[in-house]
Amino acid sequence: MDQVVILNRQLELLTKLQTIDLKIDQLEEKKKQIPNELNKLSGGLEAFAKQLEALRRRIDEINKLRRKKEGELELERGIQKKAQEKLREVKTNKEYSAMLKEMELHKGKISALEDEILNYMVMLDEENEKLKGKEREFQEEQATTLKEKEKKQAQIAQIDGLLLEKAKARDEIIAGLEERPYQSYVRLREGRNGIAVANVIKGICQGCYMMLPPQTFNEVKKNNQIINCGHCNRILFWANS
Fold this sequence. Notes:
By secondary structure, this protein is mainly alpha-helical.
């Protein structure tokens, strides 16, 4: 086979390999981002769950305070009852007045405790309503998150399928490449941010954006040999641009 034809075929295979490798890079990068996206979804749900837990703790605290005040109220009512019984036993007006003052004091305490308990009950009603609303929101968020996770998992499966297809096509191309141009391509890919083969547009290498000498550009336009850029060393090809 004519040497020009061989070089032309090698260049064609290298450009195809570059296209496939870039697509593989994109797919792998996209796949790499999906776990982070899944973590964000889980993080959002965890934050929601913490809000629910904070609300439940708040309700527990209010209930404890309410029960404490109910205990104090029961105690005051017991004292008040004993004072009423004792009132029947007093002998003098002085003792009677003292007992009435004591009973009035306990009556004030009982009234204040009843008001506090009522306030706690109102607060509990409000907080429980908030909790019910948040629980509904959490269930909706949970369902949405589950759907999004399923979509992400489907994306991973789709990407894996595409990567498998690209890997097979890549192997077929590599099978047709000679060792020397292939190894050169691999080295350039590693040292040039994944771009080993660069198109030339209007005499400018699209890998480093440097102008090629006119004679080099004319040779590149023939696409019949492997030519490296004098600036970035990438393999050059011309796509009739």
